[in-house]
Amino acid sequence: MNIVVLSVAISIFYTSSRMLYSLAQKGDAPSLLLRVTKRGAPIWAILMCVFFSYVCQMFKFVSPNTLYVFLADSSGGVTILTYVLIAFSHLCMRRKTEKENPGALKVKMWLFPYLTYLVIAMLLAIYITQAFVGSMRMQFILTSVITIIVIGFYLIFFRKNRGPSIENVKKVNRNSL
């Protein structure tokens, strides 16, 4: 069991640090996160992920029956919403690729786009069902509110042509650890 937990933790640190690095490349996270080690690891992004994982673990000791339980439970709602967004982006990107470069599609998806719409409908049905289950209602409400706030901030502060240029990214990497 401990090997499974360790494997999941390593996977989480790897993916979350790479996401932070990618966000920094696009200008959506501090440029400090662009620094990499000689071996190419985004060290500050990894350290930030480790720091916040410790903060979340502290919630387990500070408030074991409320805040920690909410953080653990809300990951399901956030994951469902993430997959819904992935499915919508799949619809958009596949249609764009079919128009611009149909030869680039190496794998054909069965029943496209109907299967993708079915997946979106099923995921949204599962997410909305949380509102009707007493133990999950608060999680549904808070996850929905946070999602609305994040989307609102994105729409208000979205800027085209944002983020550092590729030259700036290379310059930061040359000056990294």
What features would you describe in this structure?
- It is a single chain.
- The mean pLDDT is 83.
- The protein is an all-alpha fold.
- It has helices at 2-25, 43-62, 67-100, 114-129, 137-157, 166-174.
- It is built from 6 helices and no strands.
What can be said about this structure in brief?
The protein is an all-alpha fold. It has helices at about 1-25, 45-60, 65-100, 115-130, 135-155, 165-175.
**End-to-end distance, in Å?**
35 Å
Residue stretches low in confidence (pLDDT < 50, at least 5 long) are none
Q: What gyration radius follows from the Cα positions, in whole Å?
A: 20 Å
Globally, the shape reads globular
Largest sheet entry: none
Mean of pLDDT: 83
Short key terms for the protein model shown above:
177 residues; mainly alpha; 2 domains
Give the topology:
Blueprint: H1 2-25, H2 43-62, H3 67-100, H4 114-129, H5 137-157, H6 166-174
Helix pairs in contact: 1-2, 2-3, 3-4, 3-5
